[in-house]
Amino acid sequence: MKYKSITALVWLLLLTPFISHAEPRKELIPSYEITKNEADKSLTPKEALFVFTFKNISWPAKIKGACNGVQKTISTSSKGEYSLKTIPGKYIFQFYYNEEFYEIYTDSIKIEPGYRIEININFESSLYPAIMDKPVIYAYAPASTAVHIQLDLKGELLFTYPQYINGWDFTTGSQGTIQMENHEYKYLFWEGTTDINSNKTDWNEGFVVERKNLLLFLEKVLGQMGLSSMEQQDYITYWYPLMNKNEKNYVHFLFNEEYNEYASISVTPKPDNMFRVYMLWANAEGMEEIKLKDQVIPSFKHEGFTLVEWGGSQLTHIPLFHL
């Protein structure tokens, strides 16, 4: 009981763990580093002190922290520091700033009586800059229909065709021919940049596809989605030559609401059916065997006023949390 005031600082109030994003990211170099571990004459033999300095974020900051699984929100100083006086022992810490940074876990750290340990916590951004390659939009209607599409890209548009000026205004019909300013188009085309947030993607769901199986794989999953023969042909003739350069590829799809996180669209009138798919893929050559959970492939039907969109990004590496 004589250490009650000290142990209170060790966050011994039972709270629900906040950690929910992923298991520890083994590849961080390093996510934290102990910079000092030495005796501190200001401490008694029954005390110990941790001093954390949080890097790569703005100060002062509020950070969700956990000590041995118990949660507390902490506030840093204007220099990004936070001090925790406790009793000697072993401690595991977890820190979470916001969804744009990876969560950090420490190993078990032993602190001796009367010692001070200083630790740098190096937050790493979870945002992955990406080029959004060739998203194309098809529109079909049972009868000639005037359509307005507004694109809200969380990034920067690089090129559109036909030209995007405060939206696209066009008419379409049962064949999906887009008529706009006395010209006809097969689809609406755009490219841009965005930041893919690894914290919002379960990279452990997806597929690793060998070159010899690539064409069959694309035909199978696009068929499961419900894309028409023409849409599948457009998709495959664009992506297959790029992906076929690799012996094997990692593939993960973003569907509908997940796609909206980066580029949402509003359509007037409201479609009876709308399907959007975005493929994230990367060269998986030379990697050890990856155990993934196959993604569930949703499907839709071309019925009534229908909007279909596909696009993708080639990633330079696979940001898996663990393999």
Residue-averaged pLDDT: 90
What is the count of structural domains?
2
Overall form: elongated
Order of helices and strands: HEEEEEEEEEEEEEEEEEEHHEHEEE
N-end to C-end Cα span: 45 Å
Helix share of residues? 10-25%
Which class of secondary structure composition applies to the elements?
Answer: mainly beta
Total helix count? Answer: 4
Strand order of the largest sheet: 13-17-11-22-21-19-18
Query: What low-confidence regions span 5 or more consecutive residues with pLDDT below 50?
Result: 1-29
Number of strands: 22
Strand residue percentage: 35-45%
- Rg over CA atoms: 26 Å
What about the largest sheet? 7 strands, mixed
Would you mind describing this structure in some detail?
The structure is a single chain. The chain has helices at 4-7, 214-225, 229-243, 257-260, and strands spanning 32-39, 48-55, 62-67, 70-75, 81-86, 89-91, 93-96, 104-105, 109-111, 115-122, 127-140, 145-153, 155-161, 168-172, 178-180, 183-185, 188-197, 207-210, 248-255, 263-268, 273-283, 306-315. The longest helix is centred in the C-terminal third of the chain and has 15 residues, at 229-243. The chain has four helices and 22 strands. The chain folds into two domains: 4-122, Immunoglobulin-like (Sandwich), CATH 2.60.40.1120; 127-315, no CATH class. Helix 2 runs antiparallel to helix 3. It is elongated. Residues 1-29 have low confidence and may be disordered. It is mainly β and 323 residues long. The strands form six sheets. It has a seven-stranded mixed sheet. Strands 1-10-2-5 form a four-stranded mixed sheet, with no helix packed on it.
